[in-house]
Amino acid sequence: MSARGTDGAHSTAGTRATPSRATPSRATPSRATPSRAVAVTGIGLVTPAGFGAGASWARLLDGTSTARADPRLAGLAVDFSCPAEGFEAAELLGGRLVRRLDRFAQLAVLAAREAVADAGLDPSAWDSTRVGVVLGVSANSTATYETEYARLADGRPDLVSPLMLPRSIPNMAAGEVGLDLGARGPNLVTSTACASGTTALAVACDLLRAGTCDLVLAGGTDSPRAPMVATAFDRLGALSRRRHDPAGASRPFDADRDGFVLGEGAGILVLERVAHARARGVRPRAYLAGHGSTADAHHFTAPHPGGDGLARAIRVALADAGLSPHDIGHVNAHGTGTRLNDTAEAAALHRVFHRPPPVTSVKGAIGHTMGGAGAIEAAVTVLSLQHGLVPPTANLERPDESLGLDVVAKVPRRLALDAAVSVSSGFGGQNAAVVLTAA
Q: Cα–Cα distance between 342 and 334 in angstroms, integer?
């Protein structure tokens, strides 16, 4: 059943806290546990909003931006980003491992450790051959390539690190998570541009449904804060140029939006066969009930202006979950803050929903984490289902009325949610959607 609510105060309790809802959950047993659903039993987040799921959730509920001047991008036309801070990777991973891992892999390992602990799992006790890893990446290791190529271009091939390839190839984030936790099942990477994290959740869901795995560490990671990435996106006209106001630059669905802001981060969910979670005596945080993936086949960078592909992805995900548009109470949007994306996404939501439910975009607060975005946003959707709260869209000062959306702004909105959708899109006409239901 679609949910509506009012804006109000919020709790910033830890990730396992369960604040009282405005009204009791209306989910029926059949809706809470669809026959093809998989359980979400753990969450790990390393984002510009905070280190860990609890810190990230609290900052997102505050609705404040994390964008600031970035020394890595100094001197460029766009010299700001949303960095993930509040931790020392060397202290948490050890200096030797940090030297071996590119930043995108470091973030993934840290998020995976949190997710596994949150799920109450002991890697030394699980059947490692039944544990998979599926991660989405997009930009992956551009910074490593830049550093090592500069050494080569300076005529010093002897200074090129022998670790360059194992640090930089896209599969190494998933590979390193598997090494770190001893997961010996399928170890896969999805790369569907900025839909990669959501696609990874879909692939993991299918592995569990097929009986290939008992549990999968699934999500996405990226660290695109690199001069080449920033310059390339700026040349495409995709980045905000609000150098005078970095904190106000990322403004999804706002009439004055002018592009996205680069962010970095990782989001990983522990997905588990429902029977396996029950046997462990674990109460799921939520259920991944359905997923859908489509292609626009329209343009190599621009989305279909009418949102055709994204609308079809949402419909496929709803059908997979056995739900109708009327069952969805909230949409966690891709919401990049570009003119084209927000317009196309709004059109897609109007195609699917007679009246789109309340929408939010976390990119206003943490920027665009690319391969990590879909997984981070799915994790935030799970937290919204648990806590009955939808974080506000940061920097939404003047909503674009032409979009016709009910975008949550200023303060969190309290909603009694049974089911929600998280959606992603990417270059190449990629679209992905997941339906998540309350436990």
A: 8
Residues 6+ apart with CB under 8 A from 278: none
Cβ within 8 Å of residue 321, ≥6 positions away: 34, 36, 37, 289, 290, 419, 435, 437
Taking a C-beta distance cutoff of 8 angstroms, is the pair 180, 117 a contact?
Answer: no
Conformation bin of residue 430: beta by default, left when phi > 0, alpha when psi is -120 to 50: beta
Neighbours of 402 (CB within 10 A): 9
The conformation of residue 402, written as its DSSP 8-state character, comes to G
DSSP character at residue 167:
H
Three-state secondary structure string covering 211-276? CCCCEEEEEEEECCCCHHHHHHHHHCCCECCCCCCHHHCCCCCECCCCCECEECEEEEEEEECHHH
* Rounded mean pLDDT for each run of 10 residues along the chain, 439 residues in total: 35 32 34 77 98 98 97 97 96 94 97 98 97 95 88 94 91 97 98 97 98 98 96 97 97 98 98 97 97 96 95 98 97 98 98 96 98 98 98 98 98 97 97 97
Q: 178 CB contacts (<8 Å, ≥6 apart)? A: 133, 184, 187
Residues in CB range of 34: below 8 A, 6 or more apart: 287, 289, 290, 321, 322, 323, 437
Q: What are phi and psi of 155, to 5 degrees?
A: 80, 25
Catalytic residues: 194, 334, 368
Token pair belonging to 257: 């939006």
pTM above 0.85, yes or no: yes
DSSP 302: S
